[in-house]
Write a structure and sequence with these properties.
The protein is an alpha/beta fold. It has helices at about 10-15, 25-35, 45-60, 95-105, and strands spanning about 15-20, 40-45, 65-70, 85, 115-120, 130-135, 140-145.
Amino acid sequence: MLAHAPWGGRALLDGALVLDGFAGSGALGLEALSRGAATAVFIDSDALACSAIRQNMTACKASERARVIQADMRRPPPGQAHTIVFLDPPYGQALLPQAVSALRATGWLGRGTVVISETGRLEVAGEFGAKLAHRSQGAAQLNVWREV
């Protein structure tokens, strides 16, 4: 989707700084690295998920361009503004608004950051910036916005 969207493409992906929040296996950030992103930061609160991400980074030969932070997305450490932020919180816990607020407060989101969030289809996704795309499929909804 990112590669072919009018607001995305090579210009967005090439050299991008990527944050994969609620990272799980790290698949989203690793895919971005494989498509030209410069670096990826993976944040997840679960120690087993962080271990799996490290193993996946090694398997993908991405360890030099990526790092893992074990932290709660509602209380991330200070960071720098990233080009692309993926957020895939557990469904039904209303974590997205809290994570977005925390990422803004700690510097991870800046003017122009493209944020891609996946939440449960019935959850209120919120309006966080300039909406670029919305899709619903099955139990999920995907929202994309650009920070203003």
